[in-house]
Specification:
The chain contains six helices and no strands. It is mainly α.
Length: about 180
Amino acid sequence: MKRCPPGVICVENVTIMIILIVLMVSIQNPFIKFILFTIFSVLMGITLSERTRHSNSEAIKTAIFGTLGIFVAMFLFTIVLLMLGIEVGSTFGLFLLEALIIMIIVSITSYFMKASSTTNKIIAGIFLFIFSLFIIYDTTNILIRDYYGNDFITASLDYLLDIVNIFIDLLNLNQ
């Protein structure tokens, strides 16, 4: 695996992780999904390690506790919604996907335009909001889905992506 400059996430690592996500979503064999999820998790850990290597410990602690707090709050909020009979559906999921795609385009554009740190913090804040909403969407789907005992990898992947992205966004806000 290629070593990237300090604080930079390698495009090669991201490409491999995207391929692994596509494979996990498309493959039905639970054992193969588990192996792919394990490889993905290790690669994600290495990538996060590279990303946080040059961050101060206080920013990392804040990001960890902030991620935990956001996850618990959004999880409990979803439970309350479900108890009230409110389910977020596919329309909400499509809205989140559209918002995510738009923000990815904005983020790439700001990278090439060398946006100010304030602009980057605003972008990180919007991403943070979107991924917080993804916890509500994913939790609803996880709680109402019938897994038939063999597709917990998809649920784990949903939460892992939400948690990692929230962590990175909080880290970006605290830098």
